[in-house]
Specification:
The chain is mainly beta. It is about 5% helix and about 45% strand. The structure holds zinc ion.
């Protein structure tokens, strides 16, 4: 695996993924939910926000060749499903690594990033970006 450039190592931008945890059954949800589908009524007033640590492991990944308007500059790119430390799974771009160096169980760190903006209604789309980290 290529050494991780200083730029990425020194990035201090913390991941701002907020999920919620049900205090009744301790299940975690991301994106956050107001009601736990398992506990339903008992989960009322029992959902607490929780910030994801941002660290996780690659579960599976694939290289995408299909051009996509939002990703033109990045094509082809690697999409990965990552299981976060907290047990929730997120899908996002895997960057700063070559496809042949990617493997399941690889430790990554996540951040949110802006994917694009819908000018008409001002909608902003966010996605996840993952990059490899040293353990
Ligand atoms: Zn619950």
């Amino acid at each position: 695996m290529m050494p991780i450039p200083r730029f990425w190592r020194e990035i201090k931008q913390r991941y701002k993924g907020i999920g919620s945890v049900c205090k009744n059954c301790e299940k975690m949800y991301f994106p956050p939910r107001k009601i736990c589908p398992e506990c339903r009524r008992e989960s009322f007033q029992n959902m607490e926000p929780v910030e994801l640590d941002g660290r996780g492991e690659v579960v599976t990944y694939t290289e995408i060749h299909e051009p996509h308007t939002e990703f033109d500059k990045h094509s082809p790119y690697i999409m990965a499903i990552v299981e976060m430390k907290e047990g929730v799974r997120l899908t996002g771009h895997l960057v700063n690594v070559d496809l042949e160096d990617v493997e399941s169980g690889m430790k990554v760190e996540a951040t949110m990033r802006k994917l694009g903006e819908e000018s008409r209604d001002g909608m902003i789309y966010y996605g996840y970006k993952f990059w490899p980290v040293d353990e």
